[in-house]
Amino acid sequence: MAVLVDAQGDLLDNIKSHVSTAVDHVQSGNTALQRAKSYQKSSWKWMCIAIIVLLIIVAIIVVGVLRPWTNKSGA
Questions:
Q1: How far is CA 35 from each of CA 40, 41, 44, rounded to the nearest angstrom?
Q2: Where are the transmembrane segments (predicted)?
Q3: Could you tell me which residue, 26 or 63, shows the higher pLDDT?
Q4: At 41, which helix (H) or strand (E)?
């Protein structure tokens, strides 16, 4: 009977060790997910800013080429 109790005690210690390791991995994974979420928000913000800047540059080029304020009739 003592041998079975000792074997089960070792098994329980092993399970406890694995659960503790799993908790550490879950906590580090949660931290990584939070960091990834903030990176994603930052990346969307910068992409929107880049698109707006690009649209402004395109608008300036189009206005510069078309020059709607000049008189095209030649008079």
A1: 9, 10, 14
A2: 44-66
A3: 26
A4: helix 2-66
- 69's tokens: 């304020």
The torsion defined by the Cα of 31, 32, 37 and 43, in degrees rounded to 10, comes to: 140
- pLDDT exceeds cutoff 80 at 40: yes
Cα-only R_g, the chain: 33
Kindly provide the b/e burial profile for residues 44-65, where b requires at least 16 CB atoms within 10 angstroms of the residue's own CB: eeeeeeeeeeeeeeeeeeeeee
Coil, strand or helix at 67? coil
Q: What is the pTM of this model?
A: 0.53
- Residue bearing the bigger pLDDT, 63 or 32: 32
- Rounded CA separation 42/46 (Å): 6
